[in-house]
Amino acid sequence: MSIEVNNESGVEVDEAEISALATHVIAAMRVHPQAELSVMLVDEGAMEQLHIQWMDEPGPTDVLSFPMDELRPGKDGDEPQPGLLGDIVLCPAVAKQQARKAGHSTEEELLLLTTHGILHLLGFDHAEPEEEREMFALQRKLLLTFLAEQGRPAIKAPEPTTGSHAPRAGTDPGSGS
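Structure tokens predicted for Endoribonuclease YbeY (177 residues):
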């Protein structure tokens, strides 16, 4: 499994922990062990530009996901396919604001957002209430199992957000970013 974490945000983050979480989530979702993932951390200005470019929405957001090969979670009896899972872009400055409101640390918020972004890459969404319940329950389960394996206490999960963190259908994030 290839996971690349690049921090261009100017904020100190635990890149190894983000990578370890991503490895945990990808393995738990039974994605092919040779899948590739890129996680980039950017400042508010860069995130705002991406948010406008891909979502046509103003202001910075917390996480954007750019799926590449449309990999899906493995299922019993299926042989998962190798490929490029995609890119996740995180904004620590926005994560810090959200963490303060949720009552946990910025690091924990970044772990939550990483999990959220990977689930978007795997085709999960939260546009409909049923999808939201499924995605957020899975997100919580994956994050809690990771934290338990690390010997860390559980975090309070934030209320579900509105909107989407993945580019609209028909866009080609691989060609522009």
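The CA atoms of residues 48 and 60 lie 4 Å apart.
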